[in-house]
Design a protein that fits this description.
Layout lengths: L1 H4 L8 H19 L1 H19 L12 H48 L4 H13 L3 E11 L2 E7 L5 H13 L3 E2 L11 E6 L4 E9 L5 H5 L1 H63 L7 H32 L6 E4 L1 H11 L8 E5 L7 E4 H17 L6 E9 L2 E9 L30 H11 L3 E7 L2 E8 L14
Parallel strand pairs: 7-9
Antiparallel strand pairs: 1-2, 1-5, 3-4, 4-5, 6-8, 9-10, 10-12, 11-12
Helix pairs in contact: 2-3, 2-4, 3-4, 4-8, 5-8, 8-9, 9-12, 10-11, 11-12
């Protein structure tokens, strides 16, 4: 720069020559960085003084005003070098971020096509292999409150698994730089997804340099986030698939039950009719034939009841049940139910506790009668002769509460929460005949009414309670006297 401006010393003003030196400092800052540009700033002041300030070829200054020129020139040069170097650094950082964003986009695109955690691990291993890092994906599986890991990649040592458990439990990155060069993972990143921690990403350098891992820390955190989101997506996709399969299986089972129960009821009705005809035949048939016909009739009645339950359950599970609800007294349901079950309840002590001031309740009479009949029938089945059965109704802050209790063995403690499931019975090997549909039907009917039903044991027996919403019954207008 100095050699280029020396021939112009007599042609250009000193201020213009200063500007040329400052331009050199700026170019050095942009292309060479902060250090060379600072050196260029000091050299520019020195060379300007030596070659262009009288007396020439000397650092002596005859005019004190040039001291101000040197100071301003040096200050502007240093500021320019700082700003130019900062601009260059920011440009490089932006380009680096652009490269990282581009490679992370490619990684996200590859992970989006993964259909299993194994494929996720393969994509991640291939990606981080480009920066000389080995990776193992540990997918977390929680069962009964205990977390286990499924490893995808290099087999980890027990020490590495302990670090992985620590990262998973603390939900924080665990670094073990002191183990660098031993061939084990030194960084463990938790795979934090929006809902749960889905596992751990264990990273090991392929060289003995731990700094190579530390320098890629932001990239590793971004990779861990993408892997966590992908594993969570696969988890929920699997859950949806299982849900769809369960819904399809339930729909198929309901359809089969409905079809079978409907098709079998007609021949059973004919069988009951034929058995009754044999029993009532005139002149009377031999006693043995009549007894056999009576057994056939009773068994056909039982089968008809079973098929009715199947058909009812299929209709309730299909979700197309139409409730014929009206405001009516619960006492009428109790009366009709006890009349229908007069024979099963004849050898039990039935206690009915209904307050006189019970309000009208909004329900489907036919379906609620089915619920009360099922509960009373179960209470009679699972109690001895002479045992007490209680039917209690009360109004509470939760709604209209009804409880049916009996004196007996109660429900097995480990099956109380399962008795309302279809085909589940209160005992594992009950001596009493049944199908395990009665309480399931009760639960479906009560749920259709917007209520709840529970089962519980009490000292000396068991209780099943259900609650219906009360609502506000219509006001009954009194007729005016004629």
């Amino acid at each position: 720069m100095t050699l280029g401006t020396l021939p112009l010393r007599e042609l250009l003003d000193v201020a213009n020559i200063v500007m040329l030196f400052l331009l050199t400092v700026f170019v050095a800052a942009v292309w060479l960085g902060r250090g060379p540009s600072v050196l260029a700033a000091f050299l520019s002041v020195a060379l300007f003084d030596f070659f262009f300030v009288p007396p020439h070829l000397s650092f002596a200054v005859t005019d004190a005003q040039y001291v101000v020129t040197f100071a301003v020139m040096l200050a502007v040069g240093l500021i320019t070098s700082h700003l130019g170097a900062r601009l260059s650094e920011q440009t490089e950082q932006a380009q680096a971020r652009e490269r990282d964003t581009r490679v992370l986009y490619e990684l996200a695109k590859d992970l989006g096509g993964a259909l299993s955690v194994g494929q996720v691990a393969e994509v991640t291993k291939r990606f981080l292999g480009g920066v000389d890092l080995d990776v193992t994906v540990l997918a977390a599986d929680v069962f009964d409150g205990e977390t286990t890991f499924q490893e995808y990649g290099r087999h980890l040592t027990e020490l590495e698994r302990n670090f992985a458990r620590s990262a998973n439990e603390r939900q924080a990155i665990v670094e073990t730089d002191s183990l660098a060069g031993t061939g084990v993972a030194i960084v463990f990143l938790p795979l934090r997804a929006p809902t749960h921690v889905r596992g751990v990403l264990a990273v090991a350098p392929r060289t003995d340099d731990a700094e190579s891992v530390r320098s890629h820390r932001p990239l590793l955190e971004a990779v861990a986030s993408l892997v966590a989101l992908t594993i969570e997506r696969l988890h929920y996709a699997e859950a949806v698939r299982h849900g769809e399969l369960e819904v399809a299986a339930e729909r198929l089972r309901t359809s089969i039950l409905s079809s079978l129960s409907h098709d079998l009821r007609t021949p059973l009705t004919s069988l009951v009719g034929l058995a009754d005809t044999l029993v009532q035949e005139q002149p009377p048939l031999p006693e043995r034939v009549i007894e056999t016909a009576g057994i056939i009739r009773d068994q056909a009645h039982s089968m008809h009841h079973l098929l009715s339950n199947l058909l009812e359950m299929a209709r309730l599970q299909a979700g197309n049940i139409m409730l014929n609800r009206e405001w009516q007294p619960f006492e009428e349901i109790v009366g009709s139910s006890t009349r229908l079950l007069s024979i099963p309840l004849a050898k039990r002590k039935l206690e009915i506790d209904l307050p006189r001031d019970l309000p009208l309740v909004y329900f489907d009479a036919v379906l609620l009668e089915r619920v009360v009949c099922n509960l009373l029938e179960n209470a009679a089945k699972y109690s001895r002769d002479g045992a007490r059965i209680q039917l209690i109704a009360r109004v509470s802050e939760n709604g209209f509460d009804v409880a049916v209790c009996n004196d007996g063995r109660g429900f097995p403690e480990d099956r109380v929460d399962q008795v309302f499931e279809l085909f589940v019975r209160g005992e594992r090997e009950p001596a009493v005949a049944g199908t395990g549909m009665g309480l399931a039907i009760c639960k479906a009917i009560i749920a259709a009414h917007g209520g709840t039903i529970t089962a519980e044991n009490r000292p000396g027996g068991a209780c099943v309670r259900f609650t219906l919403p009360l609502g506000t019954p219509p006001v009954m207008e009194e007729e005016a006297p004629s």
